[in-house]
Write a structure and sequence with these properties.
The complex is a heterodimer of chains A (about 425) and B (about 140). Chain A is built from twelve helices and 20 strands. With about 425 residues, chain A is an alpha/beta fold. Chain B is an alpha+beta fold. Chain B is globular and about 40 Å long. Classes of the chains: A alpha/beta (about 425), B alpha+beta (about 140).
């Protein structure tokens, strides 16, 4: 970790100097080695040799996920394949996957970036890190693993699944740091409690580094209470590296970008204009020292903002706010923009409900209909049917206020909402003419 | 007062059969099962010989089940048995949430009444007993 401490508190003008140097190299490297960038820079009239300041980068065209797909599999590689040591692929839920390549140097950076999460959790060689993100093409498993090893933790490569075994290992090997999706962490917590365990006594957990899906503050509070630990949000994406692009520190007030490796901009997703710090918009990332698959102005589709000001922890890397969702998670229901996280926030104000939900969208008489399926929390007294009806009506009224869209609430049996081991599937869109 | 097991069930094919199978495998004998149904779900209320075990078995099988105290009143199994009890409750100005009956043996029936609120319920139970009705205990229906 010591090699990182200096860089994390470097004065910001020095970080910017590193970024400018890196961005200059990246655009030239992309222009000279990647056919796509040669064409796209030329078409946009962008001269990669004339970058004088970080603001100049705004003249460069964007890179989209579709661009990466169109150049599958190796079109975005900027080094000979013989130098590539590993590849990962994003889940190709809508067709072709996107491929990220890693040289030795890229893998080392990745480990260092994720290891900052361990440092932020005041951890290191004395920690036992249990990684139950899926190992494989998904960047979660190996990214967290490299981070654990780089931070000096004893790292347990559990991968996802077999929840009871996860719990046994967590208990018997004394896991202190848990890495998985937040929804899987919640499933682990619920399962452990159902098995009769008391996480306060039976586990040694201190921190969880959870990401790959957006989760609300209320969800976090619930999870922290159940497992008696502190949850740090981690952000990343295959197209720029994987988890570790930004991680929350112990202050839990935004995620510190790894600014010595990534240059971030926030843009208006409709106009493409760069927005000032503090304003919400789409996160755009340019890699600074990625060798195998560098990207210039990659549109992440994630909605966040740069948090103005300095963090109380004293680290100088700027922070992004916790994700509001993705531009492609956003549901347009009867013309109104709705993020699943808004529904989650409302649900968490009602202790009678568990954290699990599914949003089902259908078309009835040419109109969008939203049905929210929820489960009652154990201990809720539903013996009189009017209690269930009250719960439904109260939630429907709160959702109507929060979303300006009518939602039908349906109470379902426990565990009828599938528990995920990876990213939770929160939305089922069965509308006519969608997808 | 006796323990009734209340189970939340979705209105879908086979759910009630699965519930009964779960109890059957655990060798639990039901004295009564009634369903209050709505469009989307039903609430199943069960009186059985071992409510605690029924609750444990159902919870372990991922049913949402709770135990509820209800008043069980023994009445003669003859015309007017329930009418006399309800007349008394009316006289006492006691609201009931829901009720149902089942026969215990040839000449006895059991009327189950849910009275909301723990205090109201025990006050009402006492009033019923004072009026000469027989309040049943768990062992009376086991």
């Amino acid at each position: 970790m010591s090699r990182q401490q200096d860089i994390l508190t470097l004065p910001h003008d020095q970080i910017e100097a590193i970024q400018l140097e890196g961005v200059k190299k990246t655009v030239i490297k992309c222009y000279e080695n990647v056919e796509f960038y040669k064409k796209s820079f030329d078409a946009a009239g962008f001269n990669p040799y004339e970058i004088e300041s970080l603001e100049d980068l705004a003249k460069a065209p964007f890179t989209t996920k579709q661009d990466l797909r169109d150049n599958y599999p190796y079109g975005f590689f900027a080094v000979p394949l013989s130098e590539v040591k590993e590849i990962h692929m994003s889940s190709g839920t809508t067709g072709i996957a996107t491929v990220g390549g890693y040289t030795d140097h890229d893998l080392e950076i990745w480990g260092d970036c994720f290891a900052r999460g361990v440092e932020f959790a005041n951890g290191g060689a004395d920690d036992v890190m249990q990684v139950c993100y899926g190992y494989g093409l998904f960047t979660g498993g190996l990214g967290a693993h490299y981070g654990g090893v780089a931070a000096g933790c004893m790292t347990i490569p559990m991968s996802a699944g077999n929840t009871e075994r996860q719990i046994r290992v967590m208990r018997e090997l004394g896991t202190t740091i848990l890495c998985c999706t937040p929804s899987y962490a919640m499933h682990i917590a619920d399962t452990a409690i159902a098995m009769g365990l008391d996480p306060k006594k039976d586990f040694k957990l201190r921190a969880g580094i959870h990401g790959a899906e957006a989760f609300s503050d209320n969800f976090r509070a619930d999870l922290e209470k159940k497992l008696d630990f502190k949850v740090l949000d981690v952000y990343g994406l295959t197209e720029t590296m994987g988890p570790g692009v930004a991680i929350e520190c112990w202050e839990q007030n935004g995620l510190h970008l790894a600014e010595d490796h990534f240059f971030a901009e926030i843009i208006d997703p409709d106009t493409g204009e760069v927005l000032p710090d503090g304003e919400w918009g789409e996160l755009v990332i340019t890699t600074i020292d990625r060798e195998a698959t560098p990207v210039v102005r990659y549109r992440t589709r994630d909605i966040t903002r740069i948090i103005p000001g300095e963090c109380a922890c004293g680290r100088t890397h700027r922070r992004i706010d916790r994700l509001h969702g993705r531009t492609d998670d956003m549901l347009i229901i009867r013309g109104v923009n709705v993020f699943p996280s808004q529904i989650e926030d409302v649900m968490k104000t009602m202790p009678e409900l568990s954290s699990w939900y599914v949003i089902e969208l259908t078309t009835v008489a040419h109109l969008d209909r939203v049905t929210l399926k929820v489960e009652m929390e154990q201990g809720f007294d539903f013996d009189e049917i009017r209690q269930i009806e009250r719960l439904q009506k109260e939630l429907e009224a709160k959702l109507k206020t929060a979303l300006s869209v009518g939602v039908k609430v349906k109470v379902v049996e426990p565990k009828s909402i599938p528990r995920s081991e990876g990213k939770a599937k929160r939305v089922i869109d069965l509308r006519e003419g969608v997808n | 007062m006796i323990d009734q097991i209340t189970v939340f069930l979705e209105n879908s094919e086979g759910r009630l059969a699965a519930l009964c199978r779960t109890l059957a495998w655990a060798n639990i004998n039901m004295r009564s099962l009634v369903i209050a149904d709505t469009t989307d779900y039903g609430v199943v209320r069960i009186i059985c010989d071992d409510p605690q075990r029924a609750l444990d078995v159902l919870t372990a099988a991922d049913y949402r089940a709770i135990s509820t105290k209800v008043a069980a009143i023994g009445v003669p199994n003859e015309p007017g048995g329930l009418a006399r009890l309800l007349a008394k409750l009316d006289e006492l100005d006691q609201n009931i949430e829901y009720g149902y009956c089942f026969s215990l043996s040839g000449d006895m029936a059991c009327d189950v009444l849910k009275i909301s609120g723990a205090e109201e319920a025990s006050a009402a139970a006492k009033a019923i007993e004072d009026a000469g009705f027989k309040l049943l205990k768990q062992e009376d229906i086991a």
